[in-house]
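> example.struct
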């Protein structure tokens, strides 16, 4: 793929940012999230994680990027204020600040074969080659994301800097792509974001976060940890996320039905995008026992939905621990 195939998208309309920082930021957030923040030991390093209710239902999932005692959470823009407010509620006397990083900062995704080489030229620095590794400077933070089958980087920077970078990337052969292109790429990579339409509907494993490296089963307690652990160690997981397609528009929050289950929903659309003219792709959490049946969206007589393969092993297909 030539540099002309390298794309970049500003994600402000899709993803928002929470900036948590302070002397006790790690200690506080460590007790709230599903992953182990202590494993982020180098500047710019990142990981998938989530925040759940006591019953294990995800309020939000997000990608965390770290530098020092600063943590940047990228998540559905519809949930930024919801999550920030909830974290502040439990902060008590902990020494940290939790802020909506907008309007000062924003996120850009740069993706396609050779994206790292192009960024190295434009940013004039060494670019991480390993997934979840990053680089940080005074006012920006770049991390290579762990997406299957796609070279992709996420850059957090002041809006002015991103505006300047847009010009430089275009001059160097990159192509600015609409947010819909990035959303489709995320769906094809099996990467989903909980939004206001789907908050508190699924547990982390059902979004395949275990496969994506967003759950640490050996860290200390956090909200919902008991439910998450039980699903893992006792084999209680019944649902997992699949790729699906349809010939009509799909939307986050749409329910999926199977004839054998009657009026009982067996799944939920998490994210969706148009994949081609008249074709639509989505990520959906489905009851695994029904995933091989004829599925329909919205109602038993709704449009057909077809299950598609994702580019990684699904949770229920992973080898079981001894």
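> example.seq
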């Amino acid at each position: 793929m030539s540099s002309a195939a390298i794309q970049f998208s500003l994600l402000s309309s899709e993803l928002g940012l929470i900036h948590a920082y302070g002397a006790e930021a790690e200690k506080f957030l460590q007790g709230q999230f599903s992953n182990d923040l202590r494993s982020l030991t180098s500047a710019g390093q990142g990981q998938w994680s989530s925040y759940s209710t006591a019953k294990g239902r995800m309020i939000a999932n997000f990608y965390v990027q770290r530098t020092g005692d600063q943590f940047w959470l990228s998540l559905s823009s519809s949930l930024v204020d919801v999550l920030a407010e909830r974290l502040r509620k439990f902060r008590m006397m902990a020494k940290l600040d939790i802020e909506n990083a907008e309007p000062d900062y924003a996120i850009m995704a740069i993706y396609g074969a050779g994206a790292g080489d192009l960024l190295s030229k434009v940013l004039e620095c060494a670019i991480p080659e390993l997934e979840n590794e990053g680089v940080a400077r005074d006012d920006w933070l770049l991390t290579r994301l762990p997406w299957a089958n796609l070279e992709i980087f996420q850059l957090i920077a002041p809006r002015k800097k991103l505006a300047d970078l847009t010009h430089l990337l275009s001059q160097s052969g990159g192509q600015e792509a609409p947010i819909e292109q990035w959303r489709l790429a995320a769906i094809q990579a099996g990467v989903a974001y909980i939004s206001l339409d789907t908050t508190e509907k699924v547990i982390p494993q059902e979004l395949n976060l275990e496969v994506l490296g967003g759950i640490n089963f050996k860290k200390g307690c956090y909200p919902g940890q008991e439910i998450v652990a039980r699903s893992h160690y006792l084999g209680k997981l019944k649902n997992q996320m699949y790729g699906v397609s349809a010939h009509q528009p799909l939307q986050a929050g749409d329910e999926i039905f199977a004839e054998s289950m009657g009026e009982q929903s067996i799944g939920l659309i998490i994210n969706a995008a148009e994949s081609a003219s008249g074709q639509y792709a989505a990520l959906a959490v489905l009851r695994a026992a029904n995933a091989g049946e004829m599925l329909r969206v919205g109602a038993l007589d709704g449009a057909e939905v077809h299950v598609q393969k994702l580019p990684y092993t699904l949770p229920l297909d992973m080898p079981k621990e001894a």
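> remarks
The chain has two domains: 3-189, 238-322.
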